[in-house]
């Protein structure tokens, strides 16, 4: 049974403090994620152990999807991707990396090799998935990339092509390999989508 005195004490300064803390949380974080967008209604094997991961776990976040490679002129973008992720993850950004050997055979290693390279060379912390095909027209193309290509009319023509997806999955933007993840154009759109109402 509630102690009336304790209940009265909590309803004073402590209650005001708790209420103030709750009000300081951004509006998008106070509400649970909406239903999983169609784009994310799929599974992909995790890079490190190939355990299937439901991409719906990222519903309600701004998602940056990138096809990566370990031996490419753009491989240094891993550093920018990690910087972007570290800078905005608390506000709701997630970066999803999908290694592919489609372009220039620049990702020849196994999933284990790729995981070790990402960890040891760039200290990658954002989620990475098993190697897959991302090139348009391939019969075994990664379904996520197939749909992203259909939605934007743009498909990867090289490593480190980027797709930026809004929290509700309705808006998808495409950025070419030459656009660095920390470029003004990408950062501006990330901030806009993070600030938008869910």
UniProtKB/TrEMBL annotation:
GO molecular-function terms, A-Z: peroxidase activity
Signal sequence coordinates: 1-29
Highest taxon listed in the record's lineage: Bacteria
Keyword Disulfide bond: no
CDD domains reported for this sequence: GSH_Peroxidase
Keyword Oxidoreductase among UniProt keywords: yes
Keywords, sorted A to Z: Oxidoreductase, Peroxidase, Signal
Catalytic residues (UniProt): 72
BP GO terms, sorted: cellular response to oxidative stress
Matching Pfam families: GSHPx
PANTHER family per record: GLUTATHIONE PEROXIDASE
Protein family (similarity comment): Belongs to the glutathione peroxidase family.
Protein name: Glutathione peroxidase
Organism: Roseateles toxinivorans
């Amino acid at each position: 049974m509630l102690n009336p005195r304790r209940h009265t004490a909590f309803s004073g300064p402590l209650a005001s403090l708790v209420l103030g803390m709750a009000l300081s949380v951004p509006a998008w974080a106070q509400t649970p994620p909406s239903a999983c967008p169609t784009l994310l209604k799929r599974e992909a094997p995790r890079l490190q152990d190939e355990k299937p991961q439901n991409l719906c776990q990222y519903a309600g976040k701004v998602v940056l999807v990138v096809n990566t490679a370990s031996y490419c002129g753009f491989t240094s973008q891993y550093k920018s991707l990690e910087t972007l992720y570290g800078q905005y993850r608390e506000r709701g950004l997630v970066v999803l990396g999908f290694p592919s050997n489609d372009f220039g055979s620049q990702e020849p290693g196994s999933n284990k090799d790729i995981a070790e390279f990402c960890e040891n060379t760039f200290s990658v912390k954002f989620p990475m998935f098993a190697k897959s095909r991302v090139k348009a027209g391939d019969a075994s193309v990664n379904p996520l990339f197939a749909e992203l290509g259909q939605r934007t009319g743009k498909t990867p023509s090289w490593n480190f092509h980027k797709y930026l997806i809004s929290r509700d999955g309705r808006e998808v933007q495409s950025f070419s390999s030459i656009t660095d993840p920390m470029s003004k154009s990408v950062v501006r759109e990330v901030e806009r989508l993070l600030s938008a109402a869910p």
